[in-house]
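A reminder from the course coordinator: this example appears on the midterm review sheet, so study it carefully.

Given structure:
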């Protein structure tokens, strides 16, 4: 089963198609043949998922928050050996959400430990202020919240200009209309099915209606029908 990262088609998001340390290949993310270059995916829950042509493939993206931080490198490698396609990195600042997790130094350590695709979800108030640090740490996909205090369009533009994939997240209470002005700038839409900040919460099925609405307005890849 083929997956992809921003530098070319690989198996399970890893391979020799390019390097995160070589930014040039990122300028035009490579998608499977039935994807357009501006194709988008829809994610839900804590970890975002790129939709695939068959709608049966899944990206397995375990959260680093479940790791034993006393041996983080080993834990990342264990996740990859167990079938992880991406590592989902939940960054929380204690302001945007009522919890604190980790920042760029930990992401850099994960990046050094393995070549797995790094899916960074910034649950922080000022993603624009800290963005370059997360790019430099090795993030492959950076998702920011539409509710955060920043110029959303400018932040998404900076992510893509750096050769990374750009994601946009919205909380359960946020209407889909809040993200519609930015859909042409994103590679992934993350519809939160819990209130961000803490794990172990119950899935909010009412968000499924929002996801269906996103599909209805054309978020799937051009020519792709669920």
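Designed residues:
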């Amino acid at each position: 089963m083929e997956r992809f990262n921003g530098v070319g088609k690989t198996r399970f998001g890893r391979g020799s198609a390019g390097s995160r340390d070589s930014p040039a290949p990122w300028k035009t993310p490579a998608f499977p043949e039935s994807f357009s270059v501006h194709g988008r995916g829809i994610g839900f829950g804590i970890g975002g998922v790129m939709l695939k042509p068959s709608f049966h493939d899944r990206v397995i993206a375990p959260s680093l928050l479940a790791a034993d931080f006393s041996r983080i490198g080993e834990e990342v490698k264990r996740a990859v050996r167990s079938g992880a396609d991406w590592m989902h990195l939940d960054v929380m600042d204690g302001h945007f959400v009522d919890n604190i997790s980790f920042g760029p130094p930990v992401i850099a350590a994960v990046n050094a430990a393995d070549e797995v695709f790094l899916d960074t979800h910034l649950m922080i108030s000022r993603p624009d202020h800290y963005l370059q640090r997360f790019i430099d740490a090795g993030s492959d996909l950076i998702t920011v919240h539409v509710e955060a205090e920043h110029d959303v369009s400018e932040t998404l533009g900076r992510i893509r200009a750096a050769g990374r994939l750009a994601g946009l997240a919205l909380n359960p209470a946020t209407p889909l209309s809040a993200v519609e002005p930015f859909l042409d700038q994103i590679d992934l839409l993350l519809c939160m099915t819990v209130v961000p900040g803490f794990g172990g919460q119950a899935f909010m099925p009412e968000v499924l209606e929002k996801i269906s609405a996103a599909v209805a307005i054309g978020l799937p890849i051009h020519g792709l029908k669920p």
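The chain has one domain: 40-216. Residues 1-56, 220-226 have pLDDT under 50 and may be disordered.
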